[in-house]
């Protein structure tokens, strides 16, 4: 029995609940019998009075106000037999019943006498609760024939029973004293004893016996009875909570404001809602996020991926795009799906059955819970506390909530992640691990998704609201909602939009409604967002005052057309100060306290602001309230207004309170419309920390160093390989692909912010020449209007251009030439269409990166490029090369894309690159070697001789510093490389590997080989004897193919590293219908010495690790958790494994099995429990020799959660105390508290700590080491 039912009073409560359910079963049977008889009585009366035969039926009449004669007469009988049809109540509950079933189902008649909500979906008596059944019996006067007691009296037995049961259901706790229990049982027994029918009714007789025994404690409470009753209680309470939740949503979420300037002008959502366009945003492998063409058309697409429930769905959208309204519509759609009471609106998506699968939906405004981290606590404060007045009921429902979220499928709608200002390290509100069937649907602004704390793995689905499907329909809806006589038409409104060029305001539903409101009120404006905000504020002020006045000398143009701001300008200034303080003081806050308000506003000004509606107040308790501005965009405009009018504000201090300027991009845009010169101070590179990210993002864009196929020139998968090879050859952090994608996004977002600022400055008649822009990227995602604005910005900044990236013919050649000439001193990055007239302008530029699209070969270009003394990156595309290309000595990367040239030309180019005194990367992508059509044999012989001479030069020069990547090369190309001293070679397709197969062994200095492709044959690539590194990326092959590759590597007489990245090595790889087995090659592997092979695996397969079983591999590295798991049982069989490297996260409590030969173990960026790591140390201690263990950036957590359970280190630490760890050499860099706590009192033999923080964390642990012979501190203290 449950613990809470052990005391006498709690058992009394349980007995009362058992009595209630027992009595319900009896009256349910009575009601079933009674209403069948009532239906027979009704039909007999119709036959006698109207002559309507009992065999006559109808199943078409669904509207009680428009029925056929038969259904109308049945309805009249239902009305006539309702006890309260003439009293203050409304009579039958028509919303409960399905009138099309009146002729076939008597229970549909019974439901007309039940309470008006919660019973429409109850198909029979068995599924109806006590309240519904007793209500039907009591309210139907015909049911009096089953009772002796007069049911018309207020104190009848049915009314008393209903009252007692309702009191029981809403009791404060689960304790009832003996006297109250006896009184409760007497009430139910009186009902069951009524002489009219129940006294002799067999179910009632049995029930009275059961209740008497239960009351007198002669019947023990069985475990099954208790559990069954508790389950029924929970189901009843859960259903009551659900019904009240639906009612709450229909009261609070069913309307939406249709005018930002007309207070109280809200309308039912179904009258104005226009479906938004929801676009899938793909999260690429490199972490970049790309809008796709795929739209969301069904709820199932939001909540499920295949048949698996999404855990977190993010809907991002710019301000005013309708995110909040969309969530409200989702909530109402769920109410429609979950409730038996249909409402008069259509669902957002057609598949309401998907929503029916979710028993609960909880809608939360994150701005209302700024300091709350747990979702369940938000639900309590925002929903439960508002739905229930009694504190005891709130506590009880909160307990039910815990059970609901543990067991039921729920939707958690959370609006405004960007408005949630908690300081917790987790970027999302906490949903407990045990809430496995909850899906979070979260709205936010896009800038929030650039938060570094948000991991790709934390997003199951990313959706963007990119506008509404039918802007015209929304405009029509709003026009109708704001007018009584429709005096102004939609056609007139659109003519106004055309004349003023205000189309951009139609993209946002909020701006569209504001624009319609302004137009209806006959207020015209230029298209400036600042002016639009001033019009909005002016109209709001008008609601709080009748005093008018205009600015004779307005500081800002946007104030000129206002009529109510001037007399109260001090209020505007005070509101602007408040907005500024809340935006910049200590992180952006959209909800603030009364104390914060009073720092800027007096009580009088606050009252005015609340009356105007520019501020709103929400009470969160009886003594505390919160304030917010009408809309976030209004707060941002006022913050910009304060900055623009104040001369004592430090821009450095403003930006010091935020992470980056993009976080306040809308403030910047408004500032451009108010004071462009001051806005430009935001762009000072000494003030914000974005310049490095932008520069790196632009460089990554130019070099195509991230997985954005739509941006890349090459549209097939080989581009990804090119990018990955490129990134991996540089050991700098800046080539990390996640960082690249983020930086490209920042560069594009930053430019979009500048374009919006320029547009606003122009509309506001500001001097746009003040707006400084150094980097220009004309990418393909720009709209036509944005292209024009960006071009204008470029022409205003021709003296200061750092980057000019053209992916289209937006600029004419003379315009490009102007930029080259004017920005000669600062231009560093150039990507343009090639043209003869531009080449001479290249001379002596400080360009470091140059891309010539559709390159035009010319002799003058070679000299110009050679003069670029700082050029490091050069890409030429789509041309026929004939003239010798001279490159500057600074060049480090040359890419030729879709180039045609002769073998002689390419040979001379390779010789030239070999002469450089540093390494250089050469990419040949889709290049072909052409041969002249010689008309004479002598000409042919001369060309052949030239080839032989140049090839001999290739053989004699040192090409070991050339890093060559080839995509779709030719046989002639690889023949040209035969016998050369190339140092690094990347073959990116299966055909490239095949064509190069017989020349690879001739490459006398080849040390690094990269391969990608699919290999179905059983042969193996021939390797040069000098090879030191082999990288296989996304290779698909049989275990036999890879096994033979390992044998080849083992035959080399030196250490060799093999990287196997995302490869599919399959034991049953099919070639021409044959199944390839690994048995033969595995036996060969066992017989060869693999101790010199250093193998790194990322996302390996089970067949791969089976191939390695029992081999003599010397060094092994695992890059993922799955790799460690798949290799777990083969590790102890590796007879010569001395070094093991491990990365990633380990949630299980098991430990890696180690081979007895292990001498070095490295854990890099591992996350694990103290139990997991402690078990690993015990394994190391069991080895009979000295072993080194290196920990780099590892997180060892004492309370690491797995499936909601906490793991303690007490057990494993006691084992550590008993084992001899003196042979373990431990090196730690960036450890944590729990790690050092685990080591306390152990017998570790040698420890080196490498950072100042490590020294501090280990300070009180080191003295407890019982066998510590040596300790090292590498940090600077």
UniProtKB/TrEMBL annotation:
PROSITE patterns: NACHT (PS50837). It holds the Pfam family DUF4559. It comes from Dreissena polymorpha (Zebra mussel). This is NACHT domain-containing protein. It comes from the Eukaryota. Gene3D superfamilies: P-loop containing nucleotide triphosphate hydrolases. Residues 311-419 form the NACHT domain.
């Amino acid at each position: 029995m449950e613990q809470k039912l052990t005391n006498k009073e709690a058992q009394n409560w349980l007995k009362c609940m058992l009595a209630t359910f027992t009595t319900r079963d009896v009256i349910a049977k009575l009601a079933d019998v009674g209403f069948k008889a009532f239906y027979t009585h009704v039909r007999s009366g119709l036959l006698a009075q109207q002559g309507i035969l009992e065999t006559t039926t109808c199943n078409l009449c669904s509207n009680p106000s428009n029925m056929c004669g038969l259904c109308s007469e049945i309805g009249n009988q239902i009305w006539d037999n309702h006890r309260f049809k003439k009293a203050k109540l409304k009579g039958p509950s028509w919303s409960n019943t399905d009138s099309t079933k009146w002729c076939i189902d008597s229970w549909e008649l019974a439901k007309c006498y039940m309470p008006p909500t919660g019973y429409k979906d109850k198909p029979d008596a068995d599924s109806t609760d006590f309240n519904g059944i007793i209500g039907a019996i009591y309210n139907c006067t015909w049911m009096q024939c089953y009772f002796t007691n007069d049911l018309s009296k207020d104190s009848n037995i049915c009314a008393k029973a209903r009252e007692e049961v309702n009191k029981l259901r809403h009791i404060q706790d689960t304790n009832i004293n003996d006297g109250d229990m006896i009184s409760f049982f007497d009430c139910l027994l009186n009902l069951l004893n009524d002489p009219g029918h129940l006294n002799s009714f067999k179910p009632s007789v049995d029930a009275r016996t059961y209740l008497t025994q239960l009351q007198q404690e002669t019947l023990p409470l069985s475990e099954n009875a208790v559990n069954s009753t508790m389950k029924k209680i929970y189901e009843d309470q859960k259903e009551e909570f659900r019904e009240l939740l639906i009612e709450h949503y229909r009261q609070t979420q069913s309307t939406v404001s249709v005018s930002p300037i007309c207070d109280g002008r809200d309308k039912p959502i179904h009258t104005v809602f226009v479906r938004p366009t929801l676009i899938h945003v793909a999260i690429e492998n490199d972490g970049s996020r790309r809008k796709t063409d795929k739209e969301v058309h069904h709820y199932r697409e939001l909540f499920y991926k295949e048949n698996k429930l999404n855990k977190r769905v993010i809907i991002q959208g710019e301000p005013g795009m309708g995110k909040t309204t969309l969530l409200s519509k989702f909530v109402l759609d769920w109410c429609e799906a979950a409730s038996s009471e249909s409402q008069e609106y259509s669902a957002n998506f057609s598949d309401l059955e998907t929503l029916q699968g979710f028993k609960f939906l909880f809608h939360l405004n994150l701005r209302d819970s700024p300091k709350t981290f747990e979702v369940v606590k938000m639900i309590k404060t925002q929903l439960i506390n508002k739905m229930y007045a009694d504190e005891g009921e709130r506590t009880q429902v909160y307990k039910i909530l815990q059970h609901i979220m543990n067991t039921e499928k729920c939707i958690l709608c959370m609006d405004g992640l960007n408005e949630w200002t908690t300081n917790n390290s987790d970027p999302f509100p906490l949903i407990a691990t045990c809430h496995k069937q909850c899906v979070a649907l979260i709205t936010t602004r896009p800038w929030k998704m650039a938060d570094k704390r948000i991991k790709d793995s934390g997003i199951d689905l990313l959706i963007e609201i990119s506008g509404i499907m039918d802007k015209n329909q929304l405009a029509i809806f709003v026009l109708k909602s704001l007018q009584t006589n429709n005096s102004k038409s939609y056609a007139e409104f659109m003519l106004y939009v055309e004349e003023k060029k205000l189309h951009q305001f139609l993209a946002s539903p909020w701006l569209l409604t504001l624009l319609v409101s302004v137009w209806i009120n006959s207020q015209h404006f230029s298209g400036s967002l600042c002016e639009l905000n001033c019009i909005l504020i002016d109209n709001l002020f008008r609601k709080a005052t009748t005093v008018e006045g205009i600015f004779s000398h307005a500081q800002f143009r946007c104030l000129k057309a206002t009529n109510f701001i001037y007399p109260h300008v001090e209020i505007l200034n005070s509101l602007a100060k408040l907005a500024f303080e809340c935006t910049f003081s200590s992180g952006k806050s959209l909800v603030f306290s009364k104390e914060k308000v009073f720092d800027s506003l007096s009580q009088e000004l606050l009252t005015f602001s609340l009356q105007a509606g520019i501020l709103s107040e929400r009470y969160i308790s009886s003594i505390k309230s919160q304030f917010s501005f009408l809309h976030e965009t209004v707060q941002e405009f006022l913050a910009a207004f304060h900055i623009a009018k104040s001369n004592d504000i430090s821009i450095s201090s403003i930006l010091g309170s935020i992470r980056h300027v993009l976080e306040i991009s809308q403030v910047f845009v408004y500032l451009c419309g108010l004071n462009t010169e001051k806005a430009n101070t935001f762009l000072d590179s000494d003030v914000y920390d974005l310049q490095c990210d932008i520069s790196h993002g632009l460089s990554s864009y130019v070099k195509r160093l991230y997985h954005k196929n739509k941006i890349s020139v090459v549209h097939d998968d080989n581009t990804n390989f090119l990018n990955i090879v490129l990134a991996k050859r540089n050991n700098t952090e800046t080539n990390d692909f996640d960082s690249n994608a983020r930086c490209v996004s920042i560069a594009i977002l930053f430019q979009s912010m500048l374009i919006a600022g320029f547009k606003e400055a122009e509309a506001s008649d500001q001097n746009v020449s003040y707006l400084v822009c150094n980097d220009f990227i004309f990418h393909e995602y720009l709209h036509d209007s944005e292209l024009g604005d960006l071009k204008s910005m470029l022409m205003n900044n021709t003296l200061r251009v750092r980057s000019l990236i053209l992916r289209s013919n937006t600029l004419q050649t003379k315009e490009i030439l102007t930029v080259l000439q004017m920005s000669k001193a600062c231009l560093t990055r150039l990507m343009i269409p090639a043209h003869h007239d531009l080449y001479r302008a290249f001379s002596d530029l400080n360009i470091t990166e140059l891309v010539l699209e559709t390159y035009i070969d010319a002799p003058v270009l070679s000299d110009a490029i050679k003069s670029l003394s700082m050029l490091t990156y050069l890409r030429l595309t789509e041309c026929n090369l004939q003239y010798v290309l001279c490159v500057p000595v600074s060049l480090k990367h040359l890419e030729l894309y879709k180039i045609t040239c002769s073998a002689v030309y390419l040979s001379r180019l390779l010789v030239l690159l070999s002469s450089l005194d540093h390494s250089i990367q050469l990419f040949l992508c889709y290049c072909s070697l052409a041969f002249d059509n010689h008309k004479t044999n002598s000409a042919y012989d001369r060309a052949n001789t030239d080839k032989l001479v140049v090839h001999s030069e290739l053989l004699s020069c040192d090409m070991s510093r050339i890093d060559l990547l080839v995509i779709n090369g030719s046989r002639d190309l690889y023949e040209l490389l035969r016998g050369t001293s190339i140092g690094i070679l990347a073959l990116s397709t299966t055909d490239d590997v095949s064509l190069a197969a017989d020349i690879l062994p001739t490459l006398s200095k080849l040390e690094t080989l990269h391969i990608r492709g699919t290999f179905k044959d059983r042969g193996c690539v021939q390797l040069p004897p000098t090879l030191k590194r082999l990288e296989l990326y996304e290779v698909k092959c049989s275990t036999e193919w890879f096994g033979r590759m390992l044998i080849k590597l083992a035959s080399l007489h030196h250490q060799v590293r093999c990287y196997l990245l995302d490869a599919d090595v399959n034991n049953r790889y099919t070639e021409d219908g044959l199944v390839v087995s690994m048995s033969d090659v595995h036996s060969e592997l066992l017989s060869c010495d693999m101790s010199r092979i250093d193998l790194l695996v990322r996302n390996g397969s089970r067949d791969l690790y089976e191939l390695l079983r029992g081999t003599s591999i010397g060094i092994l590295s695992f890059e993922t958790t799955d790799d460690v798991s798949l290799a777990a049982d083969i590790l102890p069989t590796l007879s010569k494994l001395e070094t093991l490297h491990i990365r990633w996260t380990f949630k299980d409590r098991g430990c890696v099995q180690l081979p007895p030969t292990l001498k070095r173990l490295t854990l890099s960026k591992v996350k694990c429990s103290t139990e997991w790591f402690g078990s690993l140390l015990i394994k190391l201690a069991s080895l009979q020799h000295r072993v080194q263990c290196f920990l780099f950036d590892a997180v060892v957590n004492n309370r690491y959660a797995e499936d909601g359970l906490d793991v303690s280190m007490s057990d494993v630490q006691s084992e550590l105390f008993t084992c001899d760890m003196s042979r373990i050499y431990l090196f730690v860099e960036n450890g944590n508290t729990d790690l050092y706590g685990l080591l306390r009192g152990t017998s570790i033999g040698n420890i080196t700590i490498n950072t100042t923080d490590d020294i501090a964390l280990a300070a009180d642990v080191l003295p407890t080491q019982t066998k510590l012979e040596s300790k090292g501190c590498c940090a600077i203290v």
